[in-house]
Design a protein that fits this description.
Layout: H1 2-22, E1 24-31, H2 38-57, E2 65-72, H3 77-89, E3 95-97, H4 102-115, E4 119-121, E5 131-132, E6 135-136, E7 140-142, H5 147-160, E8 166-172, H6 176-192, E9 195-202, H7 210-217, E10 223-225, H8 230-242, E11 249-251, H9 259-264, E12 272-276, H10 285-298, H11 304-323, H12 328-336, E13 341-343, E14 346-348, E15 360-366, E16 369-376
Parallel strand pairs: 1-2, 1-3, 3-4, 4-7, 8-9, 8-10, 10-11, 11-12
Antiparallel strand pairs: 5-6, 12-15, 13-14, 15-16
Helix pairs in contact: 2-11, 3-4, 5-6, 11-12
């Protein structure tokens, strides 16, 4: 009798687990929650969690509750591979959202592809991140425009909207991100008919840029393009304006940080423009609703990374609903067929390499505050 009771208990547990699993749809949330780039991953996780909460309030997916299974890559590529392996083989998720960075995404994409579970990175921007050995990985997707795309967009904006015909490039030579932006800005600016007066370089961690800025000051140019991150860019802008360099200063989404104004000072951040995937300076009702929902949930305005995390997870949920199934292969097929998904960061359709076809936003700063934005398609 005792043995029978034990077997019956085991059976009931298994039935309960099975019922619990059948009542929900699992999405993997594979993000950098600790380590060097935890800010990015944590912001994207907040956005993804909001998407799940709102979707569940709207009926979930397949008449089931959507459950996010969280994993921490610890900002390490090796750990991202491990967490992707667990999510796909142990947790049996229908789709994965994350990681934030290109390196971690590229490595975990290979795992997702091998195990045939689609993975959507909100912010992997490296060119070729969805490919291996020149071939697109069937289960790898990213919703943020690639580095080359935003470099080209700023070149088009500088030439067409700022009327610039001569440009100086002053970029971070220690960053693949910055080097990619610089190369594509130059190519596209020249293709428009512009000329590059000079190309100068700095290294991440530098703080004194006066020698190069003095050299630039004596040149004949219409715009400076500074591909890099806010830590150095803020100081460059401050020192350039202190020298009396008044020409427009442009750059990529590495500018997009509240720290920029602290480094450069509000007075220096005029006639400054940068490319980004998202801004709150808009009357777009989709963005306005998202901002209101986010503020209600978290008590602060959402960042670009919050918005990208939200969009990636909302797209994953949309794909499950369109597929009519939680089966990973059916979800992957629905993702490939995505056509004009309306996201906070723009309408999303996938190109053959599973990167998005979407416009780039160019944001203008006035006294350090985002004062306007314009869509640009290079």
């Amino acid at each position: 009798m005792k043995k029978l009771l034990v077997l019956l208990s085991i059976f009931l547990v298994l039935v309960a687990c099975s019922a619990k699993q059948s009542d929900s749809v699992a999405i993997g949330l594979n993000f950098e929650l600790t380590g060097e780039v935890a800010d990015y991953g944590s912001m994207e996780l907040d956005g993804a969690n909001l998407a799940i909460k709102l979707a569940n309030a709207d009926g979930g997916a397949l008449d089931k509750t959507i459950v996010g299974i969280k994993a921490d890559t610890k900002s390490e590529i090796e750990e991202a591979v491990s967490t992707a392996t667990k999510l796909t083989t142990v947790d049996k998720v229908s789709v994965i959202v994350g990681p934030a960075t290109s390196g971690a995404s590229g490595a975990s994409f290979e795992v997702a592809n091998q195990n045939q579970v689609a993975e959507i990175s909100p912010s992997a921007t490296a060119d070729g991140v969805t490919m291996k050995d020149g071939t697109v990985m069937d289960y790898a997707f990213t919703i943020c425009f690639q580095d080359s795309y935003q470099g080209a967009a700023m070149a088009v904006f500088s030439y067409d909207n700022l009327g610039a015909k001569k440009a100086v490039i002053y970029g971070d030579n220690s960053s693949d991100y910055a080097k990619g932006l610089a190369a594509n800005f130059e190519e596209s600016f020249k293709a428009k008919g512009g000329s590059i007066v000079a190309t100068e370089a700095y290294q991440a961690g530098e703080t004194d840029f006066n020698a190069v800025l003095t050299k630039i000051q004596g040149m004949d140019f219409d715009v400076i393009y500074i591909p890099g991150y806010y830590e150095e860019v803020g100081l460059i802008i401050k020192q350039a304006r202190d020298k009396g360099i008044t020409q427009p200063i442009t750059g990529g989404d590495g500018f997009d940080s509240p720290t920029l104004i602290g480094l450069a000072g509000a007075d220096a951040l005029n006639d400054v423009y940068f490319t980004t995937a998202y801004t709150t300076v808009t009357d777009n009702p989709v963005v306005v609703k998202f901002v209101n929902d986010f503020v209600e949930e978290y008590g602060q305005e959402p960042s670009m990374f919050n918005a990208l995390g939200y969009d990636a997870c909302a797209l994953a949920i949309d794909a499950i609903r369109r597929a009519g199934s939680a089966d990973p292969q059916a979800v992957q097929k629905a993702l490939v067929e995505t056509d004009g998904f309306v996201g906070v960061t723009g309408a999303i359709s996938f190109k053959p390499d599973h990167t998005p076809s979407k416009s780039v936003l160019v944001v203008q700063l006035v006294n350090g505050v985002q004062a306007g934005s314009q869509e640009v398609t290079p």
